[in-house]
Amino acid sequence: MIELLKDIIQCLALSISIVLNSVLTYLIMTKSNSKMGSYKYIMMYLSLSALCYSILGLIVRPDLLSYSSCFAVYVKNSSSFFSPDVMIYLMSFICAFYFFFASLIAVHFVYRYNALKNGAKWAYFQGKFLFCWFLISPLLYVNWTLNCLLVFQPNKKSTEFLRNRMAADFGLNVDDVTYIIADFYQVDDSGKFAPSPWAFFSGFNFLVMTVVSLVVIFVFGIKCYYEMTHVIVPNRNHSITQKLLQTQLFRALVFQTLIPLIIMYLPLFVLFIFPMFNINVGFAHYVSISISLYPALDALPNLLFIRDYRDCLYNFMKKPETPKSFELYSVRRGSTTTSSARKSTVNLGRVDLG
Fold first, then answer.
1. Fewest beta carbons less than 10 Å away: which of 70, 151, 180, 304?
2. What does the pLDDT read at residue 1?
3. Strands 185-187 and 193-195
């Protein structure tokens, strides 16, 4: 029952995400305020990335397992469209989005702070510099993809280690699933558990990239809030309109950070780090459901908090006004038009009475 519910929620959430992020991308392209500067390209970058993640997630629909000293991502072969060899690549691609989104949100906060302090046309977010900022997330993405493909490959020992857990908790035969696994304490030839150097190296890699991204987010988030509380200073924020726009963008970004922090980053961080200390975590199955909700919820703050996008959606969904039957009643009392109409009515009445 839980498996069926998970599949339904995943498919529904990812389908909604595809629609919302497509709409958001269109609005960013066509309805963005000219004062946004380069920030609209960063927003579009995140929106298109969430769209790609949703499409890939709808194809893969991965599940998670955190057990004893290992963390695994797996897919049932019966529900996959591709061979196990291809699915291992697809699972590695979708896992790497964790760092892609974390680093891109960090870039968002760096830009927001400097836009508040130096103006939207800050030189280091223009031209070739903007390309360099865009390059950070793909580099981290490739880094973790290679970790998954080179370090987290399944083997006979890991398959046997997962067999009882899969059967007891999920009623699955481990031979009927495709998985990648971070196994921190592997069984050696003598039957004893020994630390895996490469797994711990990848765990350290995971820890560093996650902590750096979160530190940048929190530090520049506090800096942004500090700048937002200041009165508009000449030569920095030039108008009330810009101040209101910056406020909208900052609020949207805060919620865009809180949503993945609660439903994706912190749960995955716990699920991955605890096996390094051989601590068993039992809520992994539910985290895969919450992660599928992220791209669907991620587009909402921009759609709801940024006025240009919100008004456009409101006007699109608003019912068209029905035309008035008598134009006379739409005119204010006492207006010249009303007076003229009354005179005309009186004159016509006199002519008819003859």
1. 304
2. 62
3. antiparallel
Cα–Cα distance, 310 to 24 (Å, whole number): 10
Q: What are phi and psi of 195, to 5 degrees?
A: -60, 140
Contacts of 151 (CB under 8 A, 6+ apart): 182, 198, 199, 201, 202
Domain ranges (residues) in the chain:
2-317
Q: Residue 84 is encoded by which pair of tokens?
A: 């196990």
> Which residues in the chain land under pLDDT 70?
1-2, 119-124, 127, 189, 191, 230-240, 282, 319-354
In DSSP terms, 73 is beta-bridged to 64, 180
Amino acid at site 256: Q
CA dist 47 and 21 (Å) reads 6
The CA-CA-CA angle for residues 22, 254, 272, to 5°, reads 85
What distance in Å separates the CA atoms of residue 312 and residue 29, rounded to the nearest whole number? 13
Q: For residue 63, report the phi and psi dihedrals to the nearest 5 degrees.
A: -125, 160
**The pLDDT of residue 230:** 66
- The yes or no reply on domain 2-317 and CATH 2.70.70.10 is no
Burial of residue 89 (number of CB atoms within 10 Å: 0-12, 13-18, 19+): middle
What are the tokens at 322?
């029905």
Contacts of 83 (CB under 8 A, 6+ apart): none
Q: Which of 254, 246, 245 shows the shortest CA–CA distance to 300?
A: 254
Q: Which two tokens stand for residue 211?
A: 């902590």
24 in Cβ contact with 300 (< 8 Å): no
pLDDT of amino acid 346 = 42
Looking at 119-265, list the stretches that DSSP marks H as alpha helix, in order from N- to C-terminal side.
Answer: 127-150, 156-170, 197-228, 240-260
Q: Which residues lie across from 64 on neighbouring strands?
A: 73
Query: Using CA atoms, how far apart are residues 60 and 178, in angstroms rounded to an integer?
Result: 11
